[in-house]
Design goal:
Blueprint (H helix, E strand, L loop, with lengths): L2 H38 L12 H9 L2 H20 L12 H9 L9 H39 L9 H45 L12 H6 L2 H24 L2 H17 L3
Helix pairs in contact: 1-2, 1-3, 4-6, 5-6
Length: 272
């Protein structure tokens, strides 16, 4: 691929991305506008909510043309990627965590002299990080168990107003979840700092050491891990999904699901 074609392909894809992004915003705004128009229209006679299946079908039916154009633009995007390919530039991996993971495969089990102190330092850092990691995993598991136990106790939901019950649950559970989230961020930061400190030691330890040869796979594993086998699985799953969608359209399930979705929005979540 010469530089002229590369420049042309980049221009075509860039123009498509901008047009698709703008059209996506327009379609989204139209959906929001129609929803607000239905909501502000008031409750019709015989209904408990401004949303009804017939009214939603009527209003959203107006947007059928731009919606299908948007779907067609997605297909066009896939075609443009094939007709006007752009060579991806592989940037060098500079994140110390990934470099460290790659070099750790060549770490020796034993070392002498100055290298021994480096190896001991790397091993001690890994032990500390692993301990913190498993402690964090244990804390998350305990938190999830507490959430499930809380939700399984009927006395925690005494009010008729379920919104008040959910807010009460959030008051007890969200602070703990926020603490765990901050702890996870701190662990990631500490891991990155530790990787930077370990990297010079690991580079000294692995200098001149070849990576271990890949393990020989048996015939079954070669078949399972082959790219065409994975592609076949993806195509089969996609065809199965399309078949189920077509079956649902043919037996009337689409209308039933659409009706239930409206009821969930208007009665459970409370948008109505």
């Amino acid at each position: 691929m010469n530089k002229v074609n590369e420049s042309t392909n980049k221009t075509v894809q860039l123009v498509y991305k901008w047009v698709f992004a703008a059209f996506t915003i327009i379609v989204g705004a139209l959906f929001i506008w129609q929803t607000l128009d239905i909501y502000t229209g008031g409750v019709a006679a015989g209904n408990t909510s401004p949303f009804s299946r017939e009214l939603v079908e009527e209003r959203l039916g107006i947007l059928a043309a731009p919606f299908w154009i948007w779907i067609a633009m997605i297909a066009v995007g896939f075609i443009l990627c094939e007709v006007f390919p752009v060579r991806e530039k592989i940037s060098p991996i500079t994140d110390p965590r990934y470099v460290l993971k790659r070099l750790e495969k060549r770490l020796p089990q034993e070392a002498e002299g100055k290298l021994k102190s480096s190896l001991d330092y790397v091993k001690s850092q890994n032990k500390i990080l692993k301990a913190i990691y498993w402690l964090l995993i244990a804390m998350v598991c305990v938190y999830l168990v507490l959430v499930v136990v809380y939700m399984c106790v009927p006395s925690n939901f005494p009010n008729v107003d379920k919104t008040a019950d959910m807010l009460n649950m959030a008051k007890y559970l969200l602070p703990v979840g926020a603490i765990l989230f901050v702890a996870a961020l701190l662990y990631v930061t500490a891991y990155k700092i530790s990787a930077k400190k370990q990297l010079p030691h690991v580079k000294k330890l692995t200098a001149g050491v070849k990576a271990p040869a890949a393990a020989v796979q048996n015939k079954f594993m070669r078949i399972v891990t082959h790219k065409y086998f994975k592609l076949g699985i993806r195509i089969a799953v996609a065809c199965l999904g399309v078949a189920f969608v077509i079956a649902g359209c043919c037996n009337g399930s689409v209308r039933e699901v659409f009706n239930k979705a409206i009821r969930i929005c208007t009665e459970c979540i409370g948008l109505g």
